[in-house]
Amino acid sequence: MDATQISSELTKVLYTNDQIQERLTELAAQIDEKYRGKDLLLIGVLNGAVMVMADLSRHLATHLQMDWMAISSYGSGTQSSGVVRILKDLNTDIEGRHVLVVEDIIDTGLTLAYLIQNLNSRKPASLEIMTMFRKPDALSSPVDVAYVGFDLPNEFVVGYGLDYAGRYRNLTDVGTLAPHVYS
Ligand code: 5GP
Ligand code: MG
Ligand code: MG
């Protein structure tokens, strides 16, 4: 879907799909370099990371498998609750595996801190994080993120997998939602 179709609900486009794909190509080259000769397990965090998983994985040349987790943090609002629940666990045993967590966006980092602690307890051979977007507060989170697509301003964004109340995930560009939509 083109952003112009619902442009009255977006105040501005921050990153176009072309910019996102170009950045993913660069990150994929770094990831291929890092995991050369290894078997990689990508773990996508549902639902937001669906788009970045689909695109990043197709830019990679490394042999890989994919698995998915669903965890809740925000519900349908725009504030992190700090309460994290596993809604769907992995199908794969990650012990001894090289794992790369694929995230859509890191805001407070609360969700990710919980997830990393949980995954580390399963004894992977290695564990790294890739996120398409990162917000300013994430910089004060103790969690180390190896691959970052773009740093965003501290605004609520939608598109490229990111939702508001379950909508807007199918926008190919990423932009800010006009306040009147959710206030
Ligand atoms: P954190 O725990 O890092 O504060 O929040 C991470 C999760 O909150 C993301 O996976 C995403 O679901 C949601 N989130 C954080 N910031 C945004 C945003 O700007 N837009 C949307 N749509 N979701 C966000
Ligand atoms: Mg996420
Ligand atoms: Mg959401």
Please, could you describe this protein's structure?
The strands form two sheets. Strands 4-3-2-5-6-7 form a six-stranded mixed beta sheet, sandwiched between helices. Helix 3 (110-120) links the parallel strand 5 (98-106) and strand 6 (126-134). It has one domain (17-153): Rossmann fold (3-Layer(aba) Sandwich), CATH 3.40.50.2020. It contains four helices and nine strands, in the order E-H-E-H-E-E-E-H-E-E-E-E-H. With 183 residues, the chain is an alpha/beta fold. The model has no long low-confidence stretch (mean pLDDT 89). The longest helix has 18 residues, at 17-34. The structure holds guanosine-5'-monophosphate (5GP) and magnesium ion (MG) (2 copies). One magnesium ion (MG) binds next to strand 5.
Structural class: alpha/beta
Strand tally is 9
What's the order of the H and E elements? EHEHEEEHEEEEH
End-to-end Cα distance, whole Å, is 24 Å
Task: Describe the structure using short key phrases.
183 residues, six-stranded mixed beta sheet, alpha/beta, Rossmann fold, binds guanosine-5'-monophosphate, three-stranded antiparallel beta sheet, single chain, 9 strands, 23% helix, binds magnesium ion
